[in-house]
Amino acid sequence: MIDTIAALASGRPPAALAIIRISGPAAFAVVRGLAGRLPPPRRLSLCRLCHDGELLDEALVAIFPGPASASGEDLAELHLHGGPAVVSGVLAAVTAHPGVRLAEPGEYTRRAFANGRMDLAQVEGLADLVQAETASQRDQALALAGGALGRLADGWRERCLMVLAEAEAGLDFAEDEADVAERLDEAAREQLTRMADELAGLIADSARAMRIRDGLTIAVTGPPNVGKSSLVNALAMRDVAIVTAIPGTTRDAIEVPIDLGGVAAVLIDTAGLRDTDDPVEAIGIARARMRAAGADLVISVASPDTLGWPGDAGLHLLNKCDLGYPQIPADVLPVSATTGRGLPALRDWLAAWARAITRPGEPALLAHARHRAAFADAEAALRDAADATEAVLRAEALRTAAHAFGRIAGRVGVDDVLDRIFSRFCIGK
């Protein structure tokens, strides 16, 4: 028999409100035992919750009969006062009912997937939505959780199956109808090549989707004591990096998440670039060069007494401009991390750069490695189908492509990734 699960679905108490979610065959029996009655479905009803003759709370209770519920099972929600004693008391009373236990991480969503309420791509979108910190991450996650990628994959799968049907129909033509089969073969080749090229374009755009989900990386580089750490602190609007007048204070890379006009980014404060005999500082400098090489943007910082910027930097800054500076090139942005001068212009420049890279508002769905791998496998199979010299080989390649698209929604071949995906969720999800 399937267990009934229960968990706190809201934040940790104390809070103004707390929501306990109960899902499974005994969910309504638990409500009836606590409230003495079963309220009308899909309506919040005020109930007195009691256990062993003791009043636990006056709460709003809602029930959702399965399969038309979030989990696909009978589901109940108890909207309580959010004090620790109330929450612990009600949870203890709920789990005292036979067949009821505390939920494991992601178990509600896993049951929704198992019961056909969500496909696997929607599950991953929901996990992304819970972790989203910026507007662009939220929009991307909402599209994924809303089934956009599943619908896209299903559309591609249907196209494969239609070409597969035509390929198999070509097998039925007799030798005296070889001209018809040849025309079908040529049309299929052209169609499959176009489909593979379209897929290649989607896969090429996956880097943008990944940047939206994981955030852009911005390395702040330059000689010692030009104010890199002060600049990072100013952009982050909090003290995250140690600032001293001693050269070489920063040894290892320090990462700071920031929001650039709704786009997630990570600032990387790096060791000052110079020649040194200190082996520890030399390691830090080597790491600084490595992080700069892999960053989406390199900000090269100089000061009035250390003018000069490497040519491969994406943005040249002159810090400490409040101390006075000579004429500087037009492509160098003067700022002062101490006084704040030039920082609004720097934030505007970074936000515009982030928008240009990620293009918010345009669909960007292939943010997960699993999705990119499935689409890449489908593209390879479509190219194999286009190159096939025999209808039987083409049909087999098309089945492989359709199978790859089926992996997106979790219809085939995803058992090995389920535990990893659902472990990202909190207990109440």
Considering the chains and any ligands shown, give keywords for the structure.
Rossmann fold; six-stranded mixed beta sheet; 3 domains; alpha/beta; 429 residues; Gyrase A, domain 2; Four Helix Bundle (Hemerythrin (Met), subunit A)
Overall mean confidence score, pLDDT:
85
- The N- and C-terminal alpha carbons lie at a distance of 22 Å
Order of helices and strands: EEHEEEHEHHHHHHEHEEHEEEHHHH
Strand order of the largest sheet: 3-4-5-2-1-6
Shape: flat
Helix content: 40-55%
Classify the beta-strand content into a percent band. 15-25%
CATH class value of the largest domain = Alpha Beta
Q: Please give the domain count.
A: 3
Chart the SSEs and their pairings.
Layout: E1 4-8, E2 15-23, H1 27-35, E3 45-51, E4 54-64, E5 75-82, H2 84-95, E6 100-102, H3 107-114, H4 120-131, H5 135-145, H6 148-170, H7 178-204, H8 206-214, E7 216-221, H9 228-236, E8 254-260, E9 263-269, H10 279-294, E10 297-302, E11 315-318, E12 332-334, H11 343-358, H12 369-387, H13 391-409, H14 415-422
Parallel strand pairs: 1-6, 7-9, 7-10, 10-11, 11-12
Antiparallel strand pairs: 1-2, 2-5, 3-4, 4-5, 8-9
